[in-house]
Amino acid sequence: MLSLNNLRIICTSHGLQHSNQLLMNKACLSKVSSYVTLNNCITLNSNKGTKQRNSLRLLKERELKYTTIVSSQKLFCTTHVKQNCWNCSQPIEETPAFFCLSCNVLQPPDESASFFQIMDCDQTFAINTEKLQKRYLHLQRSLHPDNFSQKKEKEQEFSEHQSALVNKAYRTLLKPLSRGLYMLELQSMHLEEGTDPGADPQLLLELMEMNEALQEARSPEDVHPIGQSTKERLKELTEQIDASMRKGELQTAKELLSQMKYFANIEDKVKEKLSELM
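Now predict its structure.
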């Protein structure tokens, strides 16, 4: 049997070992913490310029993101919260409702409505653009602020908001690219900024050659073939995206929209080049 003194020596020895181990662990943690802090500082400094460059872009995106977030959260609700007219308190049955059916007073924008609902379009990629334009003209005639100059201040304010919202909805749904991106956003899917790292190298080479040809063009005759080729590619992509959306293949649609973004950019450059040469 161990004597009391021997037992005390053993306990003291173990205590010192544990104490030393704790000190070593603490030192290691301190080094790790310093390393992480240093790396974070380096990362923050390296990202500072990027954040400054992106600040303006983020401000511009907030308005659209706010609308799409609200729409995506409420678009698929099984029940609609009924609103009452702010003027006569009668229930508003329509979604979205621009005017009260009881007192014919202009209502505030309905944040639960998607752009498709606002423009009275089916939520599909291949929409009827002629119907879209007619709806836009009708709403703008009804909602234009000039029509409410003699109305209550509240209606004047609602007119400005409603008119701006209709403009945004129309611009978004009119072009295939912005329409497709909006449909993805309603499903909480977004395209990454910049060049897609998974893009086909052959596609990138084709785009680079088209850009070089545009830069070297010296007459409209040099530009027209590039514009025609771009238009054909955009038409093909539009058909493929529509087919993917109808099948519910959103990931495929996302990849095709990424390609469409590149060719839409080429199309804009073609227009700019033609303006310079005219």
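Strands lie at 83-84, 91-92.
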